[in-house]
Amino acid sequence: MPVCPKCLKYFRTARGVTFHRAQPRAVCNVHDDRDTELVSAAAAPANERVNHEVDDALLPPSPPEFQPMDLDPDPAWEGRVLVTFPRASEIFEGGETFLTRFELDPYSVCRRLVPFYPANFLLTSGLSMRALDEFLSLEATKNMPLSFWTAKDLRARAELLPSGPRWKFQIVPTTHPTREPVQLYFRDALDCVEALFNHPFFADKMDFTPFRLFTTAERLVRVFTEWMSSDGAWDMQHKIPEGATICGIILSSDKTNITNMCGSKVAHPLLISLANIKMKVRNKGCSHAFLLLALMPIPQFIHPVRRMCGVLEECLFHQCLDIVLEPLKQAARLGRMMSDPVGNLWYCFTHLVSYIVDTPEARMLACVRGNTSPVTTAMYKDFGDPHRHPSRTAATTLAQLASIECDVLDVDQYFAACERFRLNGVSHPFWRDWPLAEPSEFLTPESLHEWHRQFWDHDVRWCKHALGATELDFRFSIIPRITGIAHFPNGITKLKQVGGRAQRDIQRYIVVVIAGAADADVVIAIRALMEFRYYSQATTITSITCDKIRASLQEFHDHKDAIIQNGHRRREKTKQVLRHWHIPKLELMQSVAPSIERVGSILQWSADTTEHAHIEVIKDPASTTNNHSYDTQICRSLDRSEKCRLFDTALALRGSTSEPTSMQQLGRETNDSDSESSERDKDRSVLDGIWTSKRKTTSFFDVAAWLSVSPPDSVPRPLRTFIAGSTAIHLNYDPSLKRVPIDIVAERFKLPDLRGALGDYLNREGNVTQNFHTFGGQRRSPPDVHLPFKELHVWYKVRLQQKAYHDPSDIASTFTVHAHPPDRLLKYGRYDAAIMNVDDQWQWPSSGLQGHAIVHVRLIMCPVLPRGSSGVNRFSDHFLIYAQRFDIVPQGNSSVERTTGLHVLKKAMRASGSELAEVFPLDQLRSYAHVIPRFGRKADNRLTSTNCIHSSPSFFLNKYFEKDFFYAIS
Question: Against a cut of 0.90, is the pTM above it?
Answer without folding.
Answer: no
